[in-house]
Structures are given as structure tokens and as C-alpha cells.
């Protein structure tokens, strides 16, 4: 089922499946995209800022994107116009993450009547329910075809 702009309402929520972050995935992602010792080397990370291996924030963001694509069924896909992101807690090996997305605001386009803009807040939460990342995204959403 795909949702169009006209199907959305403020307060509508979507919850993803859980995904577990493994040490191998954390290290592999970081080696490819964010090669810093607190992401790639458990021994060096033990004495670092995070006091242990922590996933790159970009790995958390990429994981969240996957979970949002699977759980937020917007017609035509999730097309971002802008995003604010904050990382509130480190993600550790073994952490189980869930993305909880909520529609905050809807703005019909004045210049393009075939679409609108939805503001969606997504909290990526760990197993205890604490947010490890918060994203507020403005998304382009198509209106239902006539």
C-alpha cells in the first residue's frame, strides 16, 4: 500500500522492524566511509571519547534510511528536500535499533499542485527505547492522481 500526500495526517506514525548492529558491520562501514579509530579499532576505541567501539553516525543514518524505506510507504519513494540530524547517544555492537517516524506537518505546494511537502520526525531508538538519533526531514510527497 502506497500513501499519497492526501492520505497523510499530522500524528500519523510508522514503526520499523528492529535491526541489530554487529561489530563487524560497524567496523566494515567505518573502514569504507568514516575510518576513525573509535569506529574501526575496538582496542583504540576503549581509551577514546566513546569509551568503546561506536558506530559512525553516518552508519546509523544509513541504517535509519533503510528502515524508513521499509516502513514509511510513501508513493514514489522517500524524496528528501532537507534534513536536520542529531546523534544523541552512541550506537554500540549488539544494539537493536528501531525507527519510529511521525508526520509533523503537511504543506501543499502552491506552485506544483501535484505534490506537497511533509515534515517527518524519525527517532532511531535502541532496545531500551532511548533515542540514538533524531532526524527531521522535509519530504516531497505526490498527491493522489485524479
Helix content: 10-25%
CATH architecture: Roll
Tally of separate helices: 4
CATH class: Alpha Beta
Q: SSE order in H/E notation?
A: EEHHHHEEEE
Structure description:
This protein is an alpha+beta fold. It has one domain: Roll (Thiol Ester Dehydrase, Chain A), CATH 3.10.129.10. It has helices at 23-33, 37-40, 42-46, 57-71; strands at residues 13-15, 19-20, 79-87, 96-108, 115-125, 131-142. Strands 1, 2, 3, 4, 5 and 6 form a 6-stranded antiparallel β-sheet that branches. The chain starts with 12 loop residues before the first strand and ends with a strand. The mean pLDDT is 97.
What is the strand and helix layout of this fold?
Layout: E1 13-15, E2 19-20, H1 23-33, H2 37-40, H3 42-46, H4 57-71, E3 79-87, E4 96-108, E5 115-125, E6 131-142
